[in-house]
Each structure stands twice: as C-alpha cells, then as structure tokens.
Design goal:
Length: 183
C-alpha cells in the first residue's frame, strides 16, 4: 500500500502535535507515512501535488480561524483544480484535525469546513466513533468529526491524554479503511 499522507499547517505547534500523533498511530499500524506541511515554513517538508495524488489516504489539518480553515490551507485546495478535474483523489479515505485556543473557538465547525474540499474531490471521510472512550471523556479537544486540541490562551501545544487517544483512534481507522480499499 502507498504511504498515508498527513498534511498540515501549524502556526503555534498545536496542529503539528496533532499531525505527529496521528502519524505515530499510522506507523504503529505498520503503514508508511508522509508527514508534510502545506507551506514551506513548517517543521516537515512541504507537500507536492504528486504526493497528494499518490498517497493511499489523507489526514488533513489546520488551525481554526473563525470556525474555518487557515487561509494557507484554503489556498492549497484552491490550487488543486487540476487534480479535481482528473478525479485523482476519488475514493481515497481522509480524516481531518484542528486546534483552537478556546473550547468554543470553532473546532467543530472547522472540522466540517476542512471536510468540504475533500468531499468535492470525492474522498471518503473517516470520523471518530463513540466507541472511542476518550471521545466521551474529553474535557479538551475531540469530536466525532475529527481530532482537535484546545491550546488555551497560552498556546500550549501539549496534547491531553484524551486528545492523544482520539488521534490514535483516528489514525487506526484511516489505516484500516485504506487497507480495505487497497486489497
């Protein structure tokens, strides 16, 4: 199976922490991972379109900006029309993740907003089911729509145990679906 692409934009490190936790989960399942940034200002290499086309699945995340994705991510998808016209992402599994500074900072709406370009590309969305105990227990981040983190006003990028467990579960589901679709 081709590698799974974990693609993100992070400003203060919280979304990067989520991306790395999801990537660790994917690797723990024995799958290869491409951990990439949308922009060239991240801690990991910048993604290229061929990696997006060639990946077996996609985990995609950005910080929350007024309940929407960061403009860098929006710009990235706005430049993907050539891939969309050729249908090169159709039926690839995908999941989303985000971070905000407050519990009511728009995480859930951002997760839904992140899903829109993926659905337009024909991708298959993977969420977090309620059989993941951390989803019911969390007092920080996490939603059925994807993984999230609440950094607080001090921009703490340290994930809570519940947030880590939700990332791990999301990574496992993404790998499992990618394997089923690639068999």
């Amino acid at each position: 199976m081709a590698p799974i692409l974990v693609l993100y934009h992070s400003r203060s490190g919280s979304v990067q922490a989520l991306a790395e936790e999801i990537a660790d989960s994917i690797e723990a399942q024995g799958s290869d991972v491409w951990l990439r940034c949308i922009c060239d200002d991240g801690a990991h290499p910048q993604v290229n379109k061929q990696e997006l086309i060639d990946c077996a699945a996609l985990a995609f995340g950005t910080p929350t900006r007024f309940g929407m994705m960061a403009f860098q991510a929006k710009s990235f998808w706005e430049q993907s029309s050539d891939i969309w016209l050729k249908g090169q992402l159709i039926d690839k599994p995908a999941c989303v993740f985000t971070s905000s500074s407050s519990m009511h900072g728009g995480n859930e709406t951002t997760l839904l907003h992140l899903s829109i370009p993926l659905l337009h590309h024909g991708m298959l969305l993977v969420g977090v089911p309620y059989d993941v105990p951390a989803l019911n227990a969390t007092t920080t981040g996490g939603a059925p729509y994807g993984a999230s983190h609440v950094s607080g006003l001090d921009n703490n990028s340290q994930l809570s145990n519940d947030e880590k467990q939700i990332c791990q579960a999301l990574g496992r589901r993404l790998v499992n679906l990618a394997r089923k679709l690639n068999d």
